[in-house]
Amino acid sequence: MIAFLLLLLSLFLGLTGYLVIRLHNSFPFNRIERKRMSWLFTVFPFFLFILFLYKNMVNAIIIFLFFLLFLWLGDFLLFVLQKITRKKIDKSISFLFSLVVTLLYLGHGYFLAHHVVATSYKIEATKDIGVENFRIVQITDSHIGATMDGDDFIAYMEEINRTNPDIVVVTGDFVDDDTSLTDMEKGCLGLGKLKTKYGVYFVYGNHDKGYFQYRSYDNERLREELLKNHVVILEDQSVELSDKIVLLGRQDAQTKDRLKAEELMQSIPSEKYTIVLDHEPTDYEAEASSGMDLVLSGHTHGGQFFPIGQLSVLLGINDNDYGLQKRKNTTFLVSSGIGDWAIQFKTGTISEYVIIDLQNKK
Fold this sequence. Notes:
Number of helices: 10
Strand order of the largest sheet: 1-12-2-3-4-5
CATH architecture of the largest domain: 4-Layer Sandwich
Shape: elongated
Helix content: 40-55%
CATH superfamily of the largest domain: Metallo-dependent phosphatases
Strand content: 15-25%
Number of strands: 12
Distance between the termini: 57 Å
Order of helices and strands: HHHHEEHEHEHEEEHEHEHEEE
């Protein structure tokens, strides 16, 4: 671990040194005649960056890496242009190019992370569900306190009420280590304000119980607030919503004692339509083989940054990063989430809550 951290520190210092030198060789710093003064002005932006890094390490690193990526791209394009024109071009152009592109790219990413939309799906049930249309609203990965606070979350719940859901499901990462007690309580209050026919149901994600235990409340306090607001918590448990539909909530994939998909389905009659809440989309083969009908997940944040989502699927980390997928007779849906973790940017994806109109078998 120490060797790995030293490697990261060396890489960071090396990349920082590269950027300082590139900045010093770019306009307007390369126009300052006094060398000491030029280096002083060059290092000053990095001093501001270090202050930002101290306050918001994750997002500072994201900005740093994207700026570096676009700087390399700008330098490459400048090299190609010089070869074509056979003229020497001031390197300041590539530096300014990378600065502008980084601002535009991450500015748009900030908008996507903070602007929540409703995404609608129509899914035809493979079994008789007893009604013509059954409306499910899925909320996932709010990580309250990151891109939205408790009051914002309450406002979104009021918006969801206007969609007239039959049921609302929360598929994990409702809170995380950085969610304050106040925001957690307001978030639970927001869930309590939801008006549905069949209730509000919750499964844990990998962040809900906390990784580092430095927040001012524990999982028992979270559970207490959820139950106080009439939210049903499912941990490898099922509940009959009607004589045709069964809702099943799985423990998170990182939970050691979670039951296997086939074990959960043993007591459920095959003619009943099963809606399954599973935070991480990592068990598709077993869920499809066990006869689950609809599986709803989050966790991936839609990939967060292109092409991370696609790579996670190719490497087998996740079975899917976003959207609908069908395996055997099972329909899988992954939402990119209504919020975000500490990262304030999303690119190649959106922030959303999902409206699913489950339509009766024709």
